[in-house]
Amino acid sequence: MGSLRGISVAIFVVQALLASVALVSAQGSTNRSGWQTLRGNAPFVIARGGFSGMFADSSFGAYRLALLTGPPDVILWCDVQLTKDAAGICFPDLKLDNNSDIANIYKDKQKAYLVNGVSTKGWFSIDYTFKDLRNVILTQGVYSRTNKFDGNNYAIMTVQDTYTLLKPPGFWLNIQHDTFYAQHNLSMRNFVVSVTRNVNVTVGYISSPEVAFLQSIATLFRRNATKLVFRFLGQKDVEPSTKQTYDSLLKNLTFIKTFASGIIVPKSYIWPVDANLYLLPSTSVVLDAHKEGLEVFASEFYNDVPFSFSYSYDPLAEYLQFVDNGNFSVDGVISDFPITPAAAIDCFAHLGKTASKQVGLLVISKNGASGDFPGCTDLAYLKAIEDGVDVLDCPVQMTEDGIPVCLGSINLIDSTTVAQSSFSDLTTTIPEISQGSGIFTFNLSWSDIQSLSPVISSPQSDYKLFRNPKFRNAGKFLTLSELLAMAKNASSLKGVLISIENAPYLAEQGIGVTDAVLNALSKAGYDKQTAQTVMIQSSHSSVLMNFKGKTNYKLVYMVDEDIGGAQSGTIDDIKRFASAVVISKDSIFPENTAFLTTVTDVVPRLQAANLSVYVQTFSNEFTSQAWDFFSDGTVEVNSFYMGGRIDGVITDFPKTSDRYRSKCLPVKFWHCYMLIL
After folding, report:
1. 60-69 and 159-166 are packed helices; what angle lies between their axes, rounded to 10 degrees?
2. Phi, psi dihedrals of residue 88, rounded to the nearest 5°
3. C-alpha angle 632/638/644, rounded to 5°?
4. How many CB atoms neighbour CB 108 within 10 A?
5. What are phi and psi of 234, to 5 degrees?
6. Distance of alpha carbon 592 from the chain centroid
7. Which member of 114, 158, 415, 648 lies 3.0 to 4.6 Å from 362 by CB, making a disulfide possible if both were Cys?
8. CB burial class (10 A; 0-12, 13-18, 19+) of residue 40?
9. Which pTM does this prediction carry?
10. 578 with 543: CB under 8 angstroms?
């Protein structure tokens, strides 16, 4: 595994991880006194079924990975089901068929039972002894997640075996269906009493959505360290023993306090969203519960399920909203991806806007903050500056009247409403520029382009992941001169990057894009200042050669192909006309079916030739990332910086990368996003 040395935790080495990993010990939160939890301690991370976002829920692999990637006090969550012979097993649902291969083992054995009054078909644990289940293999039950690890043949485990094999720092039993088991002469109460009296098992929490069950065991745990937690389900769902809706019970927390020390609520109870999936003001649930002396645990956190557009597809930002919002903090979060809340709590909470940068990673925008607003608009650029970008980019296109403007594509169909405008009849095909037809910037004047509405880019729309629909057509386009003026007034910026493409074709049409850029830079005074670096980027070496010798601008060669195996001669050639390169993520970490396969040596070889290495494009949407990064954009950035040793990122969500640089000290962060050394 020598070629994998220094790579951040990745799935292609996860089996080695599960066997043996050297971890840097965690320090815990640097600001425990600042927590607005019930007792002032850092919130807990509860791993639902382990790291069930990757491995099969409740499998040994899921639990082990949760222990490796979670905080030192991570709590493992076990959904308890009872078998025919009253064995308690960790399994996510009453029905066994969605998360295992039982339908293949016991074909045609499904049955129908009433569950909460609803006839439900499937393979139920009550029809099998634990011995019957020994050949049943756990599988990934969420079909949008990878099933790559189902082949590890993880068996169903008893509650006792789960604890004794893994010895977690915290153990949580969730009892979801006491009433159902009682109807079939199985006692969940007896099981809970038995397991908590087992000297080899320490249970920290027992939760249930059934009032009667918790009341039935409350007296047994009044003087016990085990805490009882009432779990709220959907607000209009009916709690079976009181026959009240859960939102009605929420209004009587004093009653809940008589048998529980805490509550679990879906995250929407705390931060609701409107019909368009934008955040509404927070409710008073957490503060009300804390007044009653109840801890609050928020559930339904998943990195790979679209949440509010207000979070810009950044799961870490969502956790911070619940633990570090200035008004309250939940006492714990229940997550399928425990690495992300671990980082939020141990590394990124309480940093503040003035946190110093701990990492020398350059952050370059991709059409501004084009993940939040239409690319290359004033709003996208202002958001990028606000979000801490170092270098503001402008992909220069030329208009019919010779004005250099900032647009992500020379084809206006890609980023404007031109196809729905009076200019739709200008569609043409130019093979030298693109394979398909388009309406090109040089066929319209600047005033014509200004009359068009911008359109936000949604590169993951095939997966139904759309960006910020409320601002789909917001903002106005800028000329290069306007962008330069904006950049010059932003003291936080280190520079601007001007991208020039299609220059040879434009020159044949009598359009001098290089001269237009030089003139704009000169008029803006960039040829006489040193406060901000000017970068000129192109995939055409001839463009960069035109600038070489004429200016002191930094020349950046964009490599438009995978160069992971580039020859030394190629690198020497690039060095003749550039001082930096932009390469693809695949050039560093090649992928196969969305899994990393290895790491190339292209970065150190380029850097050995004194070429800075910038990598594109880093996006927040989990479908843009390899499985190895756990559907977390911060994990991806960390992996490329710590494992790939890159110099900078090009991103349409600058906030994610900038926040990464303001992380806590490396020792603690490496616990959150550990390394194989």
Report:
1. 40
2. -90, 125
3. 125
4. 5
5. -60, 145
6. 21
7. 648
8. exposed
9. 0.93
10. no
